[in-house]
Design goal:
heterodimer; A: about 500 residues; alpha/beta; Rossmann fold; six-stranded mixed β-sheet; 17 helices; about 35% helix; B: about 300 residues; ABC transporter involved in vitamin B12 uptake, BtuC; two-stranded antiparallel ribbon; 2 strands; about 70% helix; binds adenosine-5'-triphosphate; binds magnesium ion
Chain lengths: ~500, ~300
């Protein structure tokens, strides 16, 4: 139904797409796979008329189309969920969804449209209140709003750009059920994800993009994880690392009976306890929304505790601000990157030293030492394989995964004694994710302690020395990753405390 | 006592109305994400165009329509520069004010000293005889009734219609509207031009109702007060009414003091409404920063589809 031929798209100083061709059949789920910055999002933006291609053609049902705006593509039945949310934080869930719908009259009946939207929310078993402003919602909930916006439109081709990056595995499965059902109705879907498990589970065909070129398209049966990975990564090597057992018993951080309340007065953390040992990687398992974010924020000084204490090597740091916590040596990889992780209009170079601009290495008296800053950036860009565009490019132009890498590079550059990482590999391609794992494991060897909050149990089992399981803001217990199965941890995540103490 | 209050309230409404129109017009601009610092100039253009048209046609209705059309067109220049060409909104707005002051001074020369019959009061039967508030609110000219209606209609438009939701979305996050299939530039263009037209009616109120004549630079900074009141109002039309009447009330008080013959210089008294309005504004903005009524997120930012945010 859709044929894309030889598309090229350049931005000042960057060739985002060089020559891309691929096609989508009716009733198939077609996955786009490629490293961070390969051009997946750009290609989809070209397809929906948001970007103008420099050359190349798009044919829909045999007929060549020239979309000049998303309006054009929508009118031809092409809808998209963007990697970066297209939401108005100040508006309610209802207003955000309503605006995206087709056929809403100017004088709409509020009650009627609310009921229509509510019906879909119920169908997906979501806990979403239509009158809540979007800024109050978790990122996962925001992702669902985006999905609902798309699913309520009658589209022939649905494009989903990394919709599962912020969903829990259970939520992702629910989404896949919906997608399969749409497929059976003859609709076509373009799906983008870095999670191999998902790609294997849902794709009919996979097209691999590399550095702005389409490398190959494989049909189900022709691909397996290894094949896809090797095509995607090509000559680049996946970094290797080894997990060493950490034996130290020195405790660097103690969380004692800590409670944190949210805007609505509910407890995000409820008498939470945790100990972190020197040089260990402590995984935090739990279904998203059970207090992980509050834990990270309270540890990094972004939120205050209402009760309890945090001790760093015996020093009480409970309600100190971000700066002071940092001086105490805590680094933070936040969840909402664009909101609090970067200064979007500043360059990659500047973002990389944002935490260490006072450091003597980057200044002479009160003046910045541009050359040292540049050298530092070059080093980090090389180490983390950041695709950063020409010198001085504002960070916001980078692809999602590359923004993530900038933050990680910056946070780890000061050799922190404690790292609090919230979903650090979210949105990263497999090579980059592996590199982040290596950095964390190497850091542990140097004595850095990590609190690793992640959704992916495989990632937690692979990396952690101990796993603490959270449920409804409480610590359910510790699990030993060498002797505990995924299923056992899964049970604990739902609040059952059978294993408690086995690794404490 | 009641009489004094009634007279003061009446003067408040009459002095506040031109500013109310201007503030409502500015709110429509800014809700779509466009800053318009041309309000002062637009008021002058509206005042002169309205006066001239009424003078030559003999019809106040024609005067109001011409004032609206003239400022609609002047607003279209601002829209062209800021929406279509993505120029700097501050610079374009300031230029529009300069242009308005200059062009009305030039073409207004021949109008100085001419007279027209201004708008007359129309009493609403029953309501106008309520003590104290009857005369100020229900025995007024048609434009004042129109301003009441507009306060409601604009609120209704923004919070109860899909177009209004579209405008608000465009002011907050134009990309969200664009990817939902709405034309950001069309909505923005219309918001700027229609909003400017309302400002023009505010200007025309000065020369057709307040003092039915043309005086050079007769807006006297009211346009700037309107720009400031938008923030006080938190971009909401009912609060704009409050703000405009605050300024109107202070103006009325000040005139009353002058009439009573105080020893305070008239210049100082004339300054007071401006001074207090700014003061209230500063205080209310401090409060605003903590709560709702925030400024539209994309205010002042041109929208470029291919630019990442
Ligand atoms: N609007 C833009 N202006 C400038 N450069 C851009 C713009 N959009 C994308 N790019 C650049 O184009 C390249 C491809 O980016 P794109 O977002 O398509 O990657 P991606 O494959 O989606 O990566 P990810 O998996 O990290 O989301 C990147 O180098 C990016 O910096
Ligand atoms: Mg992308």
């Amino acid at each position: 139904m859709l044929q894309i031929e030889n598309i090229r798209k350049t931005f000042p100083g960057v060739v985002a797409l060089d020559a891309v061709s691929f096609s989508v059949k009716e009733g198939e789920i077609h996955t786009l796979l490629g490293e961070n910055g390969a051009g997946k999002s750009t290609l989809m933006n070209v397809l929906t008329g948001l970007y103008h291609p420099d050359r190349g053609s798009i044919r829909l049902a045999g007929e060549e189309v020239h979309f000049t705006s998303p309006r054009d593509s929508l009118s031809r039945g092409i809808g998209m969920v963007h990697q970066h949310f297209m939401l108005v934080p100040a508006h309610s869930v209802f207003e955000n969804i309503l605006l995206a719908l087709d056929g809403v009259p100017n004088f709409f009946k509020r009650r009627e449209w609310k009921a229509k939207i509510q019906a879909l929310i119920d169908e997906f078993q979501l806990d979403l209140d239509l009158d809540t402003p979007v800024w109050k919602l978790s990122i996962g909930a925001q992702q669902w709003i985006e999905l609902i916006k798309l699913l309520m439109r009658d589209c022939r081709l649905l494009i989903l750009d990394e919709p599962t990056a912020v969903l829990t595995p259970q939520e992702a499965n629910r989404l896949f059920d919906v997608l399969r059902r749409l497929k059976e109705q003859g609709k076509s879907i373009i799906f983008i994800s870095h999670k191999m498990r998902e790609v294997m589970a849902i794709s009919d065909r996979v097209t691999i993009l590399k550095k702005g070129r389409s490398i190959d398209t494989l049909a189900r049966g022709e691909f397996d994880e290894a094949r896809l990975a090797s095509l995607m990564i090509g000559h680049d090597r996946i970094p290797e690392w080894q997990k060493n057992l950490q034996m130290s018993d020195e405790i660097v951080l103690t969380i004692d009976n800590l409670s944190v309340r949210n805007d609505r007065g509910l407890a995000d953390l409820d008498k939470f306890n945790l100990t972190l040992k020197k040089g260990e990687i402590l995984g935090i398992a739990g279904v998203a929304g059970n207090g992980q974010k509050a834990l990270a924020e309270v540890l990094t000084g972004l939120r205050n505790a209402t009760q309890g204490r945090i001790l760093a090597r015996g020093e009480d740091i409970t309600n100190s601000n971000a700066r002071r916590s940092y001086i105490a040596g805590i680094a933070h990889i936040p969840e909402d990157l664009k909101a609090i992780g970067i200064a979007p209009d500043m360059s990659v170079d500047e973002n990389l030293i944002m935490k260490s601009f006072k450091n003597g290495a980057f200044r002479t008296w009160i003046f910045q030492d541009k050359r040292a800053i540049r050298r530092n950036a070059e080093e980090k860009i090389e180490q983390f394989a950041i695709k950063s565009g020409p010198d001085g490019t504002p960070v916001r132009y980078l692809s999602g995964g590359n923004i993530q890498k900038v933050i990680i590079a910056r946070e780890l550059s000061e050799e922190p004694s404690v790292l609090v990482a919230l979903y650090p590999t979210r949105g990263l391609d497999i090579g980059s994710a592996e590199y982040v794992h290596k950095v964390i494991a190497d850091g542990a060897d140097q004595g850095m302690s990590t609190i690793l909050i992640a959704e992916d149990l495989d990632e937690l089992l692979k990396l952690s020395d101990r796993i603490a399981v959270m449920f409804r803001g409480r610590l359910i217990g510790y699990a030993d990753p060498r002797s505990t199965t995924r299923e056992e941890i899964g049970l604990m995540m739902s609040g059952e405390n059978r294993n408690a103490g086995s690794a404490a | 006592m009641f009489d004094t209050l009634e007279i003061l309230l009446d003067a408040t409404v009459r002095a506040g109305t031109p500013i109310l129109f201007a503030t409502l017009g500015a709110i429509i601009n800014e809700r779509a994400g466009i800053i318009n610092l041309g309000i002062e100039g637009l008021m002058l253009i509206g005042a002169l165009a309205g006066f001239a048209a009424t003078h030559y046609s003999g019809s106040l209705l024609v005067g109001i329509l011409v004032a609206f059309v003239a400022t609609y067109i002047a607003g279209a220049i601002h829209a062209l520069i800021t929406v279509q060409l993505r120029g700097n909104q501050i610079v374009s707005g300031l230029a529009l004010t300069m242009f308005g002051i200059g062009v009305t001074a030039l073409f207004g020369k021949g109008m100085v000293g001419l007279t027209i019959d201004g708008f007359e009061r129309i009493a609403i039967p029953g309501l106008s005889s309520i003590p104290v508030i009857g005369r100020p609110f229900f025995n007024q000219d048609i434009l004042i009734y129109l301003s009441f209606l507009l306060v409601y209609l604009i609120w209704f438009f923004f919070y109860r219609t899909r177009w209004g939701l579209a405008v608000r979305t465009i002011g907050e996050n134009p990309a969200a509207a664009d990817t939902s299939g709405l034309s950001v530039s069309r909505y923005r263009f219309l918001a700027v031009t229609i909003g400017s037209g309302l400002v023009g009616i505010g200007g025309a109120y000065l020369s057709l109702a307040s003092t039915p004549m043309w005086i050079e630079n007769m807006s006297g900074g009211r346009g700037w007060i309107a720009v400031a009141l938008v923030i006080f109002a938190g971009w909401s039309s009912p609060r704009a009414l409050l703000g405009a009447y605050l300024f109107g009330g202070l103006t009325a008080l000040q005139l009353r003091f002058q009439a009573m013959g105080t020893t305070i210089s008239a210049h100082i008294l004339q300054m007071l409404p401006y001074f207090f309005t700014i003061l209230v504004l500063v205080v209310s903005t401090i409060r605003l920063q903590k709560g709702a009524g925030q400024q539209p997120e994309a205010l002042g930012l041109p929208y470029d589809r291919e630019d990442r945010k």
